[in-house]
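INFO  loader      accepted 1 record
INFO  loader      residues=475
INFO  predictor   begin
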Amino acid sequence: MRKTKIVITLGPSTSDLEMIKALILKGVNVIRLNFSHGCHIVHKQSIQKIRQASKELGKEVAILQDISGPKVRIGKIDGVLKLAKGETLILSKRKDLKNHKVLDISYPDIIDMVNISDEVFFADGTIRTVVIDKDDDNLHLKLLNDGELTSHKGVNFPKTKISISAITKKDEEDLEFGSKEDIDIVALSFVQNRQDILKAKDICKKYNFNPMIVSKIETAEAIENLDDILEVSDGVMVARGDLGAEFGVTKLPRIQKHIIQVANVANKPSITATQMLTSMKDNPFPTRAEVSDIANAVYDGTDAVMLSDETTIGKFPLQAVEVLHDTIKDVEKDYPFEKDFKPQNDSDAIAKAAVQLSSNLHKEALVAFTSSGCSAQALSRYRPKENIYAISHSLKTNRRLSLVWGIHPLFVMEETNNPTKLLYDFVTKLLNENRINLNKRFVVTMGEISGKKGATNLIKLLDKEGMEAVLKYDF
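INFO  predictor   done
INFO  writer      dumping tokens
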């Protein structure tokens, strides 16, 4: 079974119910909805289709709501603006309809924060400028390369500290919508510090909404505050588009490895995103470099790899997912399993011991009985070669675990405070559904008090004799 997870973005190429079902059957674990595009009506329809597809196939997938954040963009341009190296461009608080070389900006106050000699990049860094002069309303920019600009392209300020809230009014409206639709995971855009995540959590709490919070790392300030951000986040996304614009593409491999490594140590899932298979928007086959990029992300220890344009507007979305799946499977043949991290707490130490036991005793899988998902995630941290099966009392927990490396949520079971009854119900259900025979061998982690977060304190070896003994109980 594949351990590194696949996230795809839904769009015009993949919005049909049958296509969603086909994608899930190809191995998609998480479906992303990009709230920078589309309205709530369209997203609601997508959510309904995803849930319907999951139910019909009997395969749960998580839904990830990617909220827009304060993406800085230029305003409207008539047609295509052709730019030449050495020319001057003006970024202004006000639109000048008479001069097409004057561009307005979505957050005008940022102009006050930028200094002479700072760099300003447009369209993911494809157009680069430097500030040569400024006044109260304008930045005068010198173009460092030729290029073309169209309406609403993004703007990056790689050497400027921008003070702007990561949560906009639109984001709060989108979070309220997500609460009503029972979204599983929320990705926060343009996170700069821990306060951005705490603000988002406060908003979610207001709507009685408790999603998994993934912080998108896409600015220099976020890299500086990575440890603090991870402490209050449930996961991170390596957002390589804006990171490339901030730091330059040549620094991206090192930055990607750093983010994933820090996330692995902190036991927080990571998603590697942007241009994994860009050529497959228009071609049925990837480039060699793209396949190597996927492989390197897997070797780095990422929990998931993500497709964006490839599945929103691409011509070959199913083939793109196949390439991800096949590449991951091949890499995992010699993946560096069994990481030796220092346990963070008692439950984490139990998880580490369970992984070592499963390896030393050649058990076929690990089984985590988990309420919040933490005990299953703790097993994942150590990257066992054996599969991890998660059994929860909550469908929400199972869906969220779809993002985490190596975890395969099996089913939802009724809560009980009797560990033996829990094992009895587990074995009985597996046998009734013909999922296993009695010759399977498991290492099981569980707590004496079921349903309590962080209460995992038992390891059990469950083989044929153990299952037969459990089945003799009369409940």
